[in-house]
TrEMBL record:
This is Ribosome biogenesis GTPase. One of its GO terms (molecular function) is GTP binding. It holds the Pfam family RsgA_GTPase. Residues 18-32 have a biased composition (Basic residues). InterPro entries: G_CP_dom, P-loop_NTPase, Ribosome_biogen_GTPase_RsgA, RsgA_GTPase_dom. Keywords: GTP-binding, Nucleotide-binding. PANTHER family: SMALL RIBOSOMAL SUBUNIT BIOGENESIS GTPASE RSGA (PTHR32120), SMALL RIBOSOMAL SUBUNIT BIOGENESIS GTPASE RSGA 1, MITOCHONDRIAL-RELATED (PTHR32120:SF11). It comes from Pseudonocardia ammonioxydans. The keyword Nucleotide-binding applies. Residues 115-271 form the CP-type G domain. Gene3D superfamilies: P-loop containing nucleotide triphosphate hydrolases. SUPFAM superfamilies: P-loop containing nucleoside triphosphate hydrolases. Residues 7-17 have a biased composition (Basic and acidic residues).
Amino acid sequence: MPRRRDVHALDESDVRVRPGRRGSRPRSKRRPAHADANRAMVTAVDRGRWTCAPDSDPDRAPVVAMRARELGRTPVVVGDRVDLVGDLSGEPDTLARIVRVADRDTVLRRTADDTDPYERVVVANAERLIVVTALADPVPRTGFVDRCLVAAYAGGLEPVLCLTKSDLTDPEPFAAQYRELGVPVVVTGRPGDGPPEGLDALRTELSGRLCALVGHSGVGKSTLVNAIVPAAEQATAQVSGVGKGRHTTTAALAFPHADGWVVDTPGVRSFGLAHVGPDDVVAAFGDLTAAIDGCPRGCGHLGPPADPECALDDLVDAGDLAAGRLVALRRILVALNQG
Ligand SMILES: Nc1nc2c(ncn2[C@@H]2O[C@H](COP(=O)(O)OP(=O)(O)OP(=O)(O)O)[C@@H](O)[C@H]2O)c(=O)[nH]1
Ligand SMILES: [Mg+2]
Ligand SMILES: [Zn+2]
């Protein structure tokens, strides 16, 4: 096991914040207690037990851990970077302790619905959100996709749209609606019973990162995960007669693949966004953040008639923002309001 430097030997000047290496260390100073802690990533959570993959050696057995008492009820979710102490052998019936949770780079949050103030973090530190939508069976809904995009923008994740079941219908009309926003679109489909086609494009989007798949039940998330990570052996199930999935996957699980990590998540009916406001969405389009300083207080950025003085319209008039991009952005804002 590689040993960390002995922190007792360090003086104050050695304790640095490292802004260039986001997420590699917690921002708090390392305390002498648990100086021998080992960094790991949470890959599964089940009834008060966290499965963690040690950083030191990805091929090592996963470690099952409990949350140290000093952490209280601090939420610890899949993707969290944690420090572990205790028995890290990964042998059956051993239990390590999570003693620290690092600051998160990104958070994918959702609420049960828009009026529910209780939000939960679905996945921490995912760099990309793969919004998985079937082109048919179940029928795609732009409102749902738009809300997933909002959650991605608000949580600091880069969204990618993955359209599945292209063997059932033409992907183009649906895909076209998202190109204007600059969201990458990948298309997969399965002729016959084999693995889906179009996986190379998906692999490219997944490469070198932690990525989370989200979408309605039955769209084919677990089918994709199994194709990318054969060892995952995630259960999949037929869509029911009424065109709805069966909620086959019941918990978020992270799997290592040749070039990164992918998180399968349970299907969701809706994506509650009680925690997100219009400014959060606009802020995700970095170049527009400064422009909305010119908006009146409480501007919803929807343009006339709701927000006749929205500064984003001035930007279009001045030729600094493509009209099509503003239309696409506003469709997202409408999705945020509609629930
Ligand atoms: N025709 C077709 N069927 C597919 C494709 N991908 C997946 N399916 C089928 O769709 C059904 C649902 O797939 P799953 O992978 O279980 O869907 P899921 O998104 O993981 O569903 P939950 O775990 O319930 O959220 C299964 O019967 C799959 O075989 C595809 O590209 N084309
Ligand atoms: Mg599934
Ligand atoms: Zn505005």
